Amino acid sequence: MLVDHPRIVAGGGAFGTRLREPRTLAILAVGAVLVLLIGLQVAAWLNGFDGPLASLARDYVGTPKSMSVPWAGLILALVGVNARRRVIAVTAAIGIDAVWVALRLLDGKPFTVGNGPTIVLTALAVIAAVRWQGRERTDALKAAALGALLVLATKVGDVWLHVTSAVHPTVLDEYLVLADHALGDPSWVVGRVLEVLGPEVYAVLHWVYIELPVAAIVVAVWQLRRVVPTGQWPSHYLVRTFLVLGLVGPLFYVLFPVVGPMFAYGADGAGFQVGNFWPSMVPPIDRDPAALPFDAFTPRNCMPSMHTAWALSLFLHTRRDVDGSRAPAWLRWGGAFWLAATVAATLGFGYHYGVDLVAGAVLCLTVDSALRAPERGWGMFRVRLVAFGAIVFAGLLVAYRYLAVPMAEYPVVSGAIVIGLLAAVAVAFHATWFAAAPVRRTEPVPA
After folding, report:
1. What is d(CA 69, CA 201) in angstroms, rounded to the nearest whole number?
2. How far apart, in whole angstroms, are the C-alpha atoms of residue 329 and residue 219?
3. 3-state SS class at 320
4. pLDDT digits 0-9 by tens, 147-164
5. Residue 383 — left, alpha, or beta (φ > 0 → left; ψ -120 to 50 → alpha)?
6. Residues ≥6 apart with Cβ < 8 Å to 157
């Protein structure tokens, strides 16, 4: 029979073998990224907003949109080269940035940086591909790809935010504000607390909120610090979780469009808000919620809270080293601080409802469970955990949309169920991945 043919049993013959070759897979991945970028750029042109390629072009020869992301991408790329080349690359990037800063200031444009690291990151990838060989080339290209993906992910994310507002003229905030009664309306509570604490605390939390990618790079560089001396890549590290979360999470923005309390219930609603309630007064319970018409430019990017998901993933990856040993105290405390400050910012700035954060946390634990310790395979322990997390995540979204009124009318019971489900996923995650005492591995970490 056909299925008994040895070439097919082995994996699809010569064509299947070629598809599994690293070079072929890399070419396919690059091609897929290019198709995505070109498609999004065309969509952006047709709808009158910036596209990823136009934004990327300004990183090379114009005014970069972000000062920190290009540098974060370059720093991540440098984990794949030796110390001498790191010094050369950083020096070159600083020099190029200095030239561009001077030209912009002479032209009366605002101060910003980012051209240098973008150019050097590209040059590093080209030089590694053309001139270097063996492990030196492989490590450099893999690290450069991670750095480039970080930069490109932000470009794609910016376009996706425009898409969320273009495809949904209405938002579901009236449902979430009801569901949030079950958690005690935390956005209103934290918003009032931040008003009392003053501008200094606000400034610190705002910096933490916007510089989450920088904190992630610090953790990722620490996790990947042994790549060059050992030639071994960890089987799992923070960047993988960050990128997969960024791919999966925003898909729900178009399924569950929400703008957040500062827009739907605050003065930033540009006339579309229900009223100016946030953060001084909790809106009364409306037992007949409906989709709320909203403007065409505010992103519908609340459900789930991706900042919470990313900050939680950062916290998880600061608990232990990639070899299973306990992480140093400065990293563990730093991860805990970044998570706590990010949660305070997302709520206190009015960007999210509390139920958004619960959904984001469940999504993070589910995605990280699918990615963590791939050498252990997909046994029932992983299938159960990922399935449980996915069911809880889906159940929360369904409850927020269709059971919002009962959640507001019975807040104690509803809140206990929501927090209990999150706790159940967290306990299952801890029991699967962290319950055993940290033990340093003696064998090489799989690549």
Report:
1. 24
2. 13
3. strand
4. 998 898 888 888 888 888
5. alpha
6. 246, 250
φ/ψ (deg, to 5) at 13: 75, -165
> Which residue from 237, 241, 238 is spatially nearest to 367, judged by alpha carbons?
241
Fill in the amino acid letter for 441.
R
Maximum mean pLDDT: which of 66-80, 291-305, 415-429: 415-429
Asked whether the beta carbons of 234 and 333 are under 8 A apart, the reply is no
pLDDT of residue 194: 94
From the list 252, 249, 251, 239, the residue with the least C-alpha distance to 213 is 239
CA 268 to chain centre: 25
Question: DSSP assignment of 332-350, as one string?
Answer: HHHHHHHHHHHHHHHHHTT
228: amino acid identity, one letter: V
- Report whether 283 contacts 275 (CB < 8 A): yes
* 316/433 Cα distance (integer angstroms): 10
Residues in the chain, how many? 447
- Contact in structure between 360 and 248 (CB atoms under 8 Å): no
Cα separation of 121 and 73, whole Å?
8
Residue type, 77: A
List Cβ neighbours of 400 (8 Å cut-off, separation of 6 or more): 175, 176, 179, 256, 303, 355, 359, 407
Q: Give me the residues paired with residue 170 across strands.
A: 293
With cut-offs at 50, 70 and 90, classify the pLDDT of residue 6: very low
Q: Which pLDDT belongs to residue 30? A: 73
Q: What is the 3-state secondary structure (H, E, C) of 286-297?
A: CCCCCCEECCCC
Task: Report CA 109 to chain centroid distance, whole Å.
Answer: 31
Asked if 213 and 72 touch (Cβ cutoff 8 Å), the reply is yes
The number of angstroms, rounded, from the C-alpha of 194 to the middle of its chain's C-alpha atoms is 25
For residue 319, the 8-state DSSP code is S
CB 248 within 8 A of CB 390: no
DSSP, collapsed to helix, strand or coil, labels residue 437 as coil
The residue among 258, 259, 261, 257 whose CA lies nearest residue 188 is 261
* Six token digits for residue 403: 């059971």
Q: Does residue 326 sit in helix, strand or coil? A: strand
Phi-psi region of 270 (alpha: psi -120 to 50; beta: other; left: phi over 0): left
